[in-house]
């Protein structure tokens, strides 16, 4: 396995992984624009795992100074590993590397939001030493503000 910073050439592979994670097709043109902006912005770092020349995992980070911490914090924005390669340590290694990348970028903490329905993912983060200290609230600003939680929406 090769772990490295993503490049512009990885856009379609990262898109496919995130669509699979979200269980829906995202608009590729919008995704590509955001991805290209992030690849060129030092506030973001997308770590990919490559096996035999194919990207099989992506972990996207954002670094930001936060007033309520008075520190620089890292947030995991997206984290997906191909179904075929799960449960063999790739996610664990990618998460471990993200901790080091955050430290190397001067961050004092790393955070991740995770849908309440992703119980296996919760267990993974806890097993890897993360803590569930926060609640996250959201409101849909376009369309219906549906109150039911569902993956793939």
UniProtKB/TrEMBL annotation:
Transmembrane segments: none annotated. Residues 1-153 form the N-acetyltransferase domain. It comes from the Bacteria. InterPro entries: Acyl_CoA_acyltransferase, Diverse_Substrate_AcTransf, GNAT_dom. GO terms for molecular function: N-acetyltransferase activity. Keywords: Acyltransferase, Transferase. The keyword Nucleotide-binding does not apply. It holds the Pfam family Acetyltransf_1. This is GCN5-related N-acetyltransferase. It comes from Clostridium scatologenes.
